[in-house]
From TrEMBL:
This is Hydroxymethylglutaryl-CoA lyase. Gene3D superfamilies: Aldolase class I (3.20.20.70). Residues 7-274 form the Pyruvate carboxyltransferase domain. InterPro entries: AIPM/Hcit_synth_CS, Aldolase_TIM, HMGL, PYR_CT. The keyword Lyase applies. Keywords: Lyase, Metal-binding, Transferase. One of its GO terms (molecular function) is hydroxymethylglutaryl-CoA lyase activity. CDD domains: DRE_TIM_HMGL. The lineage of its organism: Bacteria, Bacillati, Actinomycetota, Actinomycetes, Streptosporangiales. Belongs to the HMG-CoA lyase family. One of its GO terms (biological process) is L-leucine catabolic process. Pfam families: HMGL-like.
Amino acid sequence: MDATDQVLITDVLLRDGFQIEPVVIPTADKLRLAYGLMDAGLTSLEVGSFVHPDKVPQMADTDTLVRRLRPGESVALHTLVFNERGALRALAAGARHVRFVVSASDGHSRANAGVPTRDALARLWPAAGLLSEAAVHVEATIVTAFVCPFDGETGPDRVVEVAEELIALGVKVIHLADTIGAAGPAHIRRTVTAVRAAFPELPIGLHLHNTYGMASANAWEALRLGVRRFDASLGGVGGCPFAPGAAGNIGTDDLVNLCHQVGVATGIDPGKLVAVRDELRALLGRRLDSALSAVPAWPVALRPGPGA
């Protein structure tokens, strides 16, 4: 890796991490964790989703979180939007960074959005118009971009088709999600290469899950391919309630460790990140899923020495 390399890590704990928890995390606890992540050096957080609270009750306080965390300052606060109603709620809360979410596979789209992919894309046009008028920065995540729990492997051509539609909507960055954590480095290489070939100027990010223990290998392959944007969740917490078998995300702590080990900067203070992770463990009352959460501190080899 080039010594000047730096990645942008978006911590998705407050959204993807908590959406699958069996209990609703109090807003005050979410705010405390968010400020801890910011203090550790995170400049991008995914804080919630503008969906009906009956569908995902853990996201009912997204409006409050956006208002309380002061969007538009030094940290990008991303929220998910699926339709015009969600866009209106995002604008009312003062959101300045929004992500559309679309399934590459029809099977997952029906489970997640209730309609096939093409219909889910069509729903986004009114939302895109509202957000464009308000000069909101719009990104998108293509979920089941590699493997779908209902339809099997997703072909790169299909992902390119969906990306083309999203770009037409005004999307500036596209993240490819391994929603059920079933992809391997060959999947990452094949699909990232195809999307980059089709849209050479498009910034690409990855959203990785670790169901089969491949998230770090996939992140390493993506780094080798030049990807410099990643989603991660502190402690590896999270999963998709609409994808059978989906386990936690790649841990923010694990991803930071990987990047620092190979000489890629993150701007994140490992010591402060450990402190926030310990607070998260106490809040949830259980062991977390990231590899580093099994040890009490940062890897010995990466700790500053005396006088450093």
